[in-house]
Design goal:
InterPro entries: Cellulose_Degrad_GH3, Fn3-like, GH, Glyco_hydro_3_C, Glyco_hydro_3_C_sf, Glyco_hydro_3_N, Glyco_hydro_3_N_sf, Ig-like_fold. Belongs to the glycosyl hydrolase 3 family. Keywords: Glycosidase, Hydrolase, Periplasm, Signal. By secondary structure, the protein is α/β, with parallel strands linked by helices. It contains 22 helices and 27 strands. It binds 1-deoxynojirimycin.
Length: about 775
């Protein structure tokens, strides 16, 4: 059989101890090159390309190298150094076809430098800031020999019980789509082939954030209209931005698991959206088709998955075991295998691996001596991003910013917990390199003030919860209990607080509480910490809550009792510095919530862009027979888009460039924003649209634009938004995107509730 000389064999390759071969004449013609490869591959080699293997999983390293040499592996994940990846790539290049593998990893909000979690990034409402985090992630990951990240995670979540809410960018289709596009572009840079780019594999396709009851891995049952209107746009935005991969979700959709869903993977993804990258299953998802009860055995599961369009099976042996027999019996056509192989090879081609398989691994002599060296971190960028991710929820009597003088009592189980600072999915981040709030305050204060610290409480005193959290996939137990009694710890904290000028209580969740498989039935801060807060409150000292958490919490007590409340999420490697910047006013907070905070768990789902009903609740006029719960008001405790500043902003009335919009035309909506306070600061001006009457029920409002604006104290600026017919489109009952003529209200505000209004007609 003709051998294809397909390796690029750039100058460096021979240094990787692989015999140099001439460059294939077809190398620069992607379709011809890949077709030619496929033509020469055996069935076994083809099936090998469809396997994505977890390193550190069941397969011993020696066996992995043998499988690579045999051409039985298409890609791997979970290694994070060039040193580890190099021998694997070398082994792959010793296979008959010499097809390189790719290396993937969950670089979700940081690789070595950890940035704020998804909800934190989204709280910046600043696409440049978000892009800067994505770019650093790509630079660091590619410098460690990685070619692909399993990100961005763009699942819309309106149910904070779901632990993975933390990873995503919130509840809103428009905001999440904008971020999805931004992240893909940041990861992939100029081209996914660039040595400092990683291929984005957007996940979890699709609708994973809508699992029933917020319980992870549960089913999703959703009307097509809602799907297309609200939940699917972010994935499509990522694909339109060129994402090279899609990770298919673990959930089912309307009775069919995503991993066996031909409508999802073929009709929608490939045909309608034109996706031509690689589709990966999530971990073990093909075997799970048996547990979903749609496949009677492994053979049927593999058949369903390949026919639906899963190109690569992640950490799942069924493709290897079952595809040969399925092809032999004719149940799976060789054409179906070839299609999957073409997509895998296409992704590798786009990563630049055929031109240079060592493009991101480099030469051994250039390997970092210490992969965790400080010099490899991007602390400045991490601090800048984290500062933008912090949301000021309460600030009574201008408690904040704090003075750098007197005595500060720092209390709480999260005040000095480096591992929690990083949040879940912290990739190759090293806990001891993250700056806790205690360290951040010490650095900010120097000798200007006294900082005292007491733990005050354990994260939780519930042994079952501790056991569960420590059972999650971490290297070592990370919820470490202080052995003193709760009473002793509280008493110590209270005694210290009484001697201080102000209390900073750092409370919330451990990072494992907002994670995969960490769904909750409650949104409360754990009881141990509540008891601490109540005791601190009794001291009468000013009480500042610094929250660390990965989901909206029930903050009723905090709102009523704390003097200031600062939502910091899990803010990453430089979190402690960034929070200190905000607490002392070196950074005027400008973050806004990307997700509503409900009043109670019973209100879920709580999201601002809900559909209208026939008997709407009217605030202040509870009345009977309207759509409400009778124990508490409708609406969130803190709305979508909300966040305070140390300065005040005022918005003028809305001005519209025209009372009507012609078909195919546009108009401009503008407001004047004034910083009426005494500090410089930024805020996010948000534009919402409400269609008054349509052929189907429309939401009460929908975000259609936002702008982060920095103004000096006293400064005024005109903020303009363009609106086009495109912005007025929605999904009708026939699932077409249409704009219908009629009256629209434009709402512009600094959150989704307090808005100024204007009106126009679409002709
Ligand atoms: C399972 C998770 O659902 C997914 O998000 C992740 O990318 C894979 N495991 C690989 O770690």
């Amino acid at each position: 059989m003709k051998r294809l000389f397909m390796l690029g064999l750039m100058a460096g390759l021979s240094l990787q101890s692989i015999a140099a071969e001439p460059r294939s004449p077809l190398l620069d013609d992607k379709p011809a090159f890949i077709a030619s490869l496929i033509e020469q591959m055996t069935l076994e080699e083809k099936i090998g390309q469809l396997r994505l293997i977890s390193i550190g999983g069941d397969m011993p390293r020696e066996r992995i190298l043998d499988e690579l040499k045999a051409g039985h592996i298409g890609g791997t994940f979970n290694t994070v150094t060039r040193h580890d990846n190099r021998p694997m790539q070398q082994a792959a290049l010793r296979s008959r076809m010499k097809i390189p593998i790719f290396f993937a990893y969950d670089v979700v909000h940081g690789h070595r430098t950890i940035f704020p979690i998804g909800l934190g990034l989204a709280s910046s409402w600043d696409l440049d800031t978000i892009a800067s985090s994505g770019r650093v992630q790509a630079i660091e990951a590619s410098a460690d020999g990685l070619d692909m990240t399993f990100a961005p995670m763009v699942d819309i979540s309106r149910d904070p019980r779901w632990g993975r809410t933390s990873e995503g960018f919130g509840e809103d289709p428009y905001l999440v789509s904008e971020i999805a596009r931004t992240m893909v572009q940041a990861y992939q840079g100029q081209s996914p082939a660039a040595p400092d780019s990683v291929t984005a594999s957007v996940k979890h396709f699709a609708l994973y954030g809508a699992v029933e009851g917020g319980r992870d891995y549960n089913v999703v049952d959703m009307s097509p209209m809602r799907m297309h209107q609200d939940y699917l746009p972010p994935y499509q935005a990522a694909i339109d931005a060129g994402a090279g991969g899609v990770m298919v979700a673990l959930n089912s959709i309307n009775g069919v698991p995503a991993s066996a869903n031909t409508w999802l993977l073929q009709d929608l993804l490939r045909r309608d959206w034109g996706f031509d990258g690689v589709a990966l299953s999530d971990h073990g998802a093909i075997s799970e088709l048996m547990r979903h009860g749609v496949a009677k055995d492994g053979r049927e599961a593999a058949k369903l998955a390949i026919k639906a369009g899963i190109d690569m099976s992640m950490a799942d042996s069924l493709y290897r075991e079952e595809l040969p027999g399925l092809v032999a019996s004719g149940e799976v056509g060789i054409g179906e295998i070839d299609t999957a192989v073409r997509e895998v090879l296409g992704a590798k081609y786009d990563m630049g691996l055929f031109h240079d398989p060592f493009r991101r691994i480099g030469l051994a002599k250039d390997d970092p001596v210490d992969v965790n060296a400080e010099s490899r971190l991007h602390r400045e960028a991490a601090r800048a991003v984290a500062r933008e991710s912090i949301v000021l929820l309460e600030n009574k009597g201008q408690t904040l910013p704090l003075q750098k003088r007197g005595t500060i009592a720092l209390v709480g189980p999260l005040a000095d917990s480096p591992v929690d600072m990083m949040g879940s999915w912290s990739a190759a981040g090293v806990a001891k390199q993250s700056v806790t709030l205690r360290q951040g305050l010490l650095d900010a204060l120097g000798d200007k003030a006294v900082l005292r610290h007491a733990r005050g409480a354990n994260i939780t005193d519930d042994p079952h919860m501790v056991e569960y959290l420590n059972f999650l996939n971490w290297d070592k137990p990370e919820v470490v209990q202080d052995s003193r009694s709760p009473e002793t710890m509280v008493a110590e904290a209270v005694a210290m607080a009484k001697q201080a000028d102000v209390i900073v209580a750092t409370v919330g969740e451990s990072r494992g509480m907002s994670h995969e498989a960490s769904s909750r039935t409650s949104l409360q801060i754990p009881k141990s910490q509540q008891a601490l807060l109540k005791a601190l409150k009794k001291t009468g000292k000013p009480l500042v809550l610094v929250l660390m958490n990965g989901r909206p919490l029930d903050l009723n007590w905090a709102k009523a009792n704390a003097d200031a409340v600062v939502e910091t999420w899990f803010s990453g490697t430089e979190g402690g510095h960034a929070i200190a910047d905000v607490l002392f006013g070196d950074q005027n907070p400008a973050g806004k919530l990307p997700i509503s905070f409900p009043r109670s768990v019973g209100q879920i789902p709580t999201y601002y862009n809900h559909l209208r009903v026939g008997r709407p609740y009217v605030e202040g006029k509870p009345g009977n027979y309207t759509s409400q719960y009778f124990e508490e008001p409708n609406g969130p405790l803190y709305p979508f888009g909300y966040g305070l500043s140390y300065t005040d902003f005022e918005l003028s009335e809305v001005r519209l460039s025209s009372p009507s919009m012609p078909r195919g035309g546009g108009l401009e909506a503008s407001v004047t924003l004034k910083n009426t306070g005494s500090r410089d600061g930024a805020t996010v001006v948000q534009l919402y649209v409400r269609g008054e009457v349509a052929s189907v029920i429309r939401p009460v409002k929908e975000l259609k634009g936002f702008r982060k604006v920095f103004l000096k104290a006293g400064e005024t600026r005109e903020v303009r938004f363009k609106l086009e017919e495109q912005d007025l489109k929605f999904v009708n009952a026939q699932l077409e995107r249409v704009a219908e003529p009629g009256v629209f209200e434009v709402q512009i505000g600094l959150d989704s509730e307090q808005v100024k209004r204007g009106q126009f007609t679409l002709l």
